[in-house]
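Standup notes
- HV: blocked on the assembly model, inputs below
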Amino acid sequence: MKKNYVIEAENLSKIYAGVVPVKAVDEVNLQIQDNEFTAIVGPSGSGKSTLLNMIGGLDRPTSGTIKVNDILLNGMTDNQLINFRLHHIGFVFQSFNLIPVLTAKENAEFIMLLQKVPLQQREKRVMSLLKEVGLDDKLDSRPSQLSGGQQQRVAVARALASKPDFVLADEPTANLDSKSAFNLLDIMARLNQEEGITFIFSTHDQRVIDRARRVITLEDGKIVSDEIR
Amino acid sequence: MLLKLAWRNLWRNKRRTLITLASIFFAVILSTFMVSLKEGFYKGMIDSMVGAFTGYAQIHATGYWADKTLENSFEFNDSLAYRLKNANGLSSYAPRVESFALAASSEITRGTMVVGIDPKKEMLHTDLQDRVIEGEYLQEKDQGALLGEALAKYLKVGVGDTLVLLGQGYHGASAAGKYPIKGIVKFGSPELSKQLVFLSLQATQKLFDVEGRLTNLILLPDQKSETDELVQSLQSSIGNGYEVMAWQELTPEIINMMETEKMEGYVFMFILYMVISFGIFATILMMMAERMHEFGVLVAVGMKRINLAMVMILEILSISILGAFLGMLGALPICLYFYYYPIKLGAELEEMVADYGMEAVLQASISPNIFIQQAIIVGLIGCAIAIYPLWKISRLDAINAMRS
Ligand SMILES: Nc1ncnc2c1ncn2[C@@H]1O[C@H](COP(=O)(O)OP(=O)(O)O)[C@@H](O)[C@H]1O
Ligand SMILES: [Mg+2]
């Protein structure tokens, strides 16, 4: 019987044209199952961001296919992709994830507003999520009043608020001190274990890599190792 | 939610928003005040010509305006009276005989325009009666004369003196008459002041030998703003033997001046508004530039570009509308002040405006149209500028934007 994957990439390539064309991602085949806690690792420039962006429907592959829960992303229009991201994928970026003029609570609520989730449901969910990331005392703080680690935790809450199929986090700890980085990883790992949220994150921080259950290593856009621990 | 975002973003950089707001504010004040003065100026001109002498519209025999002689006078018959009585939008009319004559005092002679009026009816059309500064206004069938102030001065005559009029009557008859001076009339327009002699209609008809005939009928429409419509409908109802003209045609020099003045005004306003357009645009440009990363995140997490553009557009519109509104509020007391306390023009300007036949005061207009017009202009500028973020956001690439 064919196994269902959350993410399935086949012969995925991204070539940046230029005087010397760059093969940022080179013929990658990758399957990710529900409930994974997977790190994409590799040195800077190895293609981690490019791969995650294509998986997340932010960037289009030069060749190859990506499916999310058996839905093919390749043929979608720009607006279809935006809508797909809104309902299926949670994003945590490296830094400055949040809208500066909105409070922590409003930021976490934002995607649910775009999804037109009714007010009561929104309130309930945003409260429980901010509690889970340990920020229920910072509801009304603006991002500028939060530390980098706290900001990333709000971003995780926002990503989860939309009930996505999986959460993509491109170097979420890159700008954090190690204490905050571990704290963020702890929260992500707990959400993965307790709520079954699928996380795919990129990093080149060895201490973060150690927390992952599956580690996919990229080099020059190619997968050079894929270990499950 | 979009509104909330827009509003908060606007106050993110308070100083910049306030500077932009202030520039719109002052531009709107300046521009509103300027237009207000101009409109007031035109109104003054129209009033001083139309209200003092020409009336809002006139009927003549066809050809009279091009060749103002008594040969082009007309008989005021029952059929014409009937049609005027049934005309829509006509409030009243007053008969006149106007012709040229030499006026002589004991020492001096001068060319004048003799105007025969029905003293009672004339009161409904012009403010001649109020302009009598010495002596008295005319009675029906009066045998006396009213003189323009400048003319009286020139002829060195006053109330009680005798004026001799010499001219040519209907069909070449000679016209001559002696009239006691009953009153002196003051006009803002020096042209009028040094030319006009008023007699009763009866006396004038007798002088020029045109009993039963008129040269002009002065018309007062029900609605001054509907003068043109009245002129058109009258022209078709009373037929080819008559020409019906509105004040614009009767006083073409006012219209010419208004046109050139208006063009100059538009050029000034255009420059002024170009300056604030660039001000708003620069603000928007900066606002967009420093938020590119944020825009990238928003589109990445699933915000539709159109919604994002909406936020920017709301920001632009609220800043322009707020600025325009405050500007209007600021301009109102200024315009009101100069409405109630018109500006007295200096000697140099006085001469200039007198050439156009008006008094040397500049009264601001407080017509709501002026304020609405300014608000619409700023609104349109806002809309035009809003095209930029719309365009920019429609082609925004989330990944690139996030890199900035
Ligand atoms: N927009 C782009 N245009 C050209 N080259 C790019 C672009 N984005 C990434 N690259 C190149 O693709 C390669 C992979 O980049 P990236 O995916 O950002 O790697 P990582 O995230 O692992 O640091 C690098 O060599 C980078 O220079
Ligand atoms: Mg990267």
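- HV (later): unblocked. Chain B has two domains: 2-50+254-403, 63-239. Chain B has a mean pLDDT of 88.
- Next: hand off to the docking folks.
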